[in-house]
Design a protein that fits this description.
65% helix, Hypothetical protein af1432, 9 helices
Length: 182
């Protein structure tokens, strides 16, 4: 990990691992899977655009991710873990693959890694502490808040919004509605 990540990104990955273990413990998910997915979720984050594009082609990832390493890195990371390191646990691979965009049908592990990525201890924004507390009691609404914030931020910056994020947000919204009996 230290060979392919900056020091800041390495610390972030360890923070995601730590938060994922905490949330997995609270919600009854597999802590070993959460630790692994949290630690390795950003293994492809520090590749430059040329390397990112090369790996998108190499691993047969959708061409829509060419020229967009910010979105591609999660898909590439899952492919590297599977192809280069022999990880075949679909839940781990999906958690890594969807940690940036979310996806319809997110498993508990996927949601834990998605949320942990946003609220790990090395992040620095005003809502961090309240989101960390909320995540410990209501993972779904925390996930939805993070997705809503991500959509607003991406649109405000004029960047490309992945349709998976909108679909995942709708999925989580519906799940919350169903769980609340509304």
């Amino acid at each position: 990990m230290k060979e392919v990540l900056s020091e800041k990104r390495y610390r972030h990955s360890l923070g995601v691992e730590k938060m994922a273990i905490k949330l997995a413990t609270i919600y009854g998910a597999d802590t070993e899977k959460a630790a692994f997915a949290g630690r390795y979720h950003d293994i492809a984050k520090c590749f430059d655009q040329a390397e990112s594009d090369r790996l998108v082609v190499k691993y047969g990832i959708s061409e829509e991710y060419l020229g967009n390493s910010a979105l591609a890195h999660s898909k590439i990371a899952a492919a590297i873990l599977h192809e280069e390191y022999g990880v075949d646990d679909e839940d781990i691979l999906n958690a890594v693959k969807s940690h940036t965009t979310g996806r319809v049908g997110m498993s508990l592990l996927e949601e834990i890694v998605y949320v942990s990525d946003a609220i790990e201890e090395n992040r620095n924004y005003p809502e961090l502490k309240s989101l960390q507390e909320r995540a410990c009691t209501d993972l779904d609404t925390t996930c939805l808040y993070i997705m809503d914030f991500a959509v607003e931020m991406i649109l405000a910056k004029g960047r490309k919004l992945d349709k998976e994020t909108l679909e995942a947000r709708d999925y989580i919204t519906e799940r919350i509605r169903r769980n609340n009996g509304k």
